[in-house]
Amino acid sequence: MAKKPRTRRIWTAEQVRILKKMARQRKRASQIPKRLKRSEGATRQKAFSMGLSLDARVGRNAISPAHQVNVRCDREADKVKVNRRRALVRTLAEIDA
Known about the structure:
62% of the residues lie in helices and 0% in strands. The chain contains four helices and no strands.
């Protein structure tokens, strides 16, 4: 028995709305296609073409809160180092003058 040819289904406005809503809610990429009755690949491709992220990890840019604290401490330490260098340069400039 021959396979029946695949037909492409156009995305309806309702499906696009659901895709946007579930992407904003950070639902897993495996849950969204089940609701839309489409393949995961088709759903990912549509989201990509619309500029949506299906990254369901927590937080902004998927950085853990513990890592954010470490980054913040590193930035503050860098500011201290920069301020010390500036003070040293000022002191050396005063000595040369």
